[in-house]
Design brief:
Blueprint: H1 2-25, H2 30-58, E1 61-62, E2 67-78, E3 81-88, E4 93-99, E5 102-112, H3 114-117, E6 124-133, H4 137-142, E7 147-149, H5 159-166, E8 173-179, E9 183-184, E10 190-196, E11 199-204, H6 207-216
Antiparallel strand pairs: 1-6, 2-3, 2-10, 3-4, 5-6, 5-8, 5-9, 6-7, 10-11
Protein name: Cation/multidrug efflux pump
Keywords: Membrane, Transmembrane, Transmembrane helix
Amino acid sequence: MFYGGLAIAVAIISLLVLLRALKTLFSGGWLMGWLKGTLGLALVVLSAIIGLFAWDVFSYHELLTEKSVATISFKQLEDQHYQAILVNADGVEQKFELKGDQWQLDARIFKWQPSLARYGLKPGYRLDRLAGRYFSLEEERLSERTVYDLNPSISGVDAWRWYKMVDQNIPWLDALYGSATYVPMSDGALYEINLTHSGLISRPLNEPAEVAIRRWQ
């Protein structure tokens, strides 16, 4: 898995920086020791940041071709109120309550430029956000909205957001945001979400989902 290997490589760099920091901190001499100590502490901090960056990169999955990244099913609790069950590609199940008439799933994507992609480097993705939406603009503006962060950067270092700020200076990799179009929620509906190189696509997997889509078209 490329992104796992990339995370390991970054983690090794973090470890090397930490070892250099420890060597600097424990070398002798008073004035030089103070200077080295300051430098050593700075290297420790840098090592920690690099390590957290590696941890965040590890949360991304490699995209080989069009891939099913999740399924989502709905149970109606009351009018414009649904329980959504999201199951990702690893089989991890999450339950959410969504308000509104439609749902949308977003993903963060790292995409290599064609000059590097031809050497086998594949895009990486991470599911990012699930949201409900009201069909009526007035309800969308005035009613309760439900938005969930699916994969927060628990380390506090967000590799995608950091790269998004600097990607104009790094031409060989793009940080993109992929979103499926808003799709209707309906009691018993089941959808599959596929990720392609151009973004997310949702497909109905049962009759309630197909009926819901026809009703909204």
